Amino acid sequence: MKKLFASLLLTGVFAFSQFNAVAQDEVSSDSTAVVDSAAVEEVVAEPEPVAPMMEEVVDEPEQSFHQIVKEQFIAGGWEFMGIVLLCLIFGLAVAIERIITLNLATTNTKKLLANVENALASGGVEAAKEVCKNTKGPVASIFTQGLMRMSEGVEMVEKSIIAYGSVEMGKLERGMVWISLFISLAPMLGFMGTVIGMIGAFDAIAAAGDVSPALVADGIKIALLTTVGGLIVAVILQLFYNYLISKIDSLVNSMEDASITLVDILVKHNLSK
Description:
The chain is mainly α.
């Protein structure tokens, strides 16, 4: 019995020792496999070259014309840019008023002369006066003044037409001097703002003690914006001024031609009596 127990004990110790050796071998093999796999992974997992990232180009929203003008106006300084803007506003106001007035003063002279001639033939001078009084425009006003002197003779009619024609020309040219003033004033104010801006830029250079390109460039840019604003205002108002001058010349020529034709009609009417 003791021999059987001793043999079983020896068998168990031997089996345990064998199992422990096998387990150690498996662990060592597993650790070796893990080390080998880690080494392989280290070899395989080399750091891949990072491709240079493309800089994303962000499209900035385009600024509208109104925003650009607003920014440049503020950059130029409100002191002189505001005065230049007032010149533009007042000049445009006078120009628009003149355009409306001159367009209303335009008269169909051929139709008016035909109506006056028919009135003289049918109702005499008084009927012709009524036709002229009921017609708007400087031509009709000149005709009215001439017909009022009909009793004094054709020569007096002609003198009255010439004299009153000068008065109507003065009315047509009223306000043009203000547009001319603003055309001259806007660039001068712009140049004044430029000179003052340059003085400020040189003062900044003197205070900094160094001529910085950025400092000089910013000062010159701000100084020149007032000149640009004044020139733009002058160009805009000059276009309106030239249009108004051409319109006035057209009306004056129309008045002169119609006046000559009226005198001829009156001479013909006197001869036909």
